[in-house]
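Two records follow; treat each independently.
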Amino acid sequence: MSEASVQIELLSELSDANAAELELLLGQLSTAAFDRSRIAAMLGHDGIELFVARDGRRIVGMATLVTVPLPTGWRGHVEDVVVDATMRGRGVARLLLERLTSLASERGLRTLDLTSRPSRESALRLYEAVGFVRRDTNVLRFTPQPTDGTSSH
């Protein structure tokens, strides 16, 4: 694969083939269960865009761009960046991130953030190479517990 053979596109349709490929990618990223209805909801949400990297017809990477208007300006966040294990080290993640940073600039976003564990040293080097800057901050997370034994999301 050369970078020229990989195309970055905005996913607009969740075909059976797309769903199967996204499920494989998500399994390499997280222990979160794949939920086709959640992906479909994302594709229909105005503030969320799912970009995929295709090598030919096969999806080999993905990244989510979330944009929101806040009192301090339009802000963006990159989520769920993953490249298939067989394609890592070939520039796929760089192409995805370059597309998202380019869109952030074109749209006049005030900031574009992403988070990554400190142990992911090669990913951090890539993020810095495409223009992200480490910040002296703490990421805090609250995980709500369902009150009725079910989850709505």
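The next record belongs to a different protein.
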Amino acid sequence: MNYLWALSWLVLGRVWSQSTSPASCRCEEKANTCPFIGGIPGNSGPPGPPGEKGDQAHLFPSGKSVDGKIFKTDGSQGSYEASKATCFQAGGQLASPRSSAENAAVQQIVSRHNKAAYLGMNDIQTEGTFMYINGSEVRYTNWANEEPNNAGGKEDCIEIYLDGKWNDRSCTERRLIVCEF
């Protein structure tokens, strides 16, 4: 037993002398490779504060902020499904105005780009019952005159015109992608 005790002090002394000798170890220069004697890990500390939410401004530089939502576009276009996927990949969803102020923000973006955009609502499940992407029923609307009309029986998505009015439209056409974050 005394032999093990003496050996452990000898090893400890050797490691200590190597790790504290400036000539033999400069942790900064050796990427923290200095020898050390590891012990039993301690308890974990309390979790740190949450980080800030990432900024999507680099993906969508042109936007409007209303009621805590930010509506943005990068000027690209896509079908309804492609637009939904693009917004989801950027950490948002397809613009889904729930008030006249939010609708006005989206309208300003489409007007600036001179292109209609899909909104994040459709009546794919039940004709005539428009639902948001999350499954809740649409309460706020801003339909153009005589809309929605399901022309040709193939208009299940909603587009917003340059004047802010809505039209039901086929989901396969290409429209400006406007996301909300």
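Discussion point: The mean pLDDT is 82. How would you locate this feature using only the token line?
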